[in-house]
Write the structure tokens for this entry.
Amino acid sequence: MRKYTISFALLFSILISSTAIAQEDETIKFYNSYVETTKKAKSINDLKPYLSQNNINQMGEITKEDEALFLEIVKEERKKIKIKAISSKIDGDTAILTVDGVDTSSNEPIDGIVYLVKENGKWKFVQEEFILDVVIE
């Protein structure tokens, strides 16, 4: 009887692990899709399916002119970042992604943190922060 208990426990932990990996892959796929969409977006409306409700509400408070400027800035910044690796940590309906990349304008390493939230069963973008790796000699 003990062999079955151990086998069941092992199988259960494998299933739990594969579910966690699938969720992490889901957040990474979502973020990659968001990144590609930001590169091609012609208006803020192209990004809305990816944005959290809070972000959409904030977008409603700015003018069309400011929306265009915002989109231009986002696209310019996006061009500077070449993503090399992404990892994900999920805690319930929130996820934090860590991004390793390169700033193509300076060829310096760059680190990023991306925050996602699950709304109505779908991952949504909250914010991202990128900083250059600083080497002090």
In short: The first strand starts at residue 81 and ends at 91.
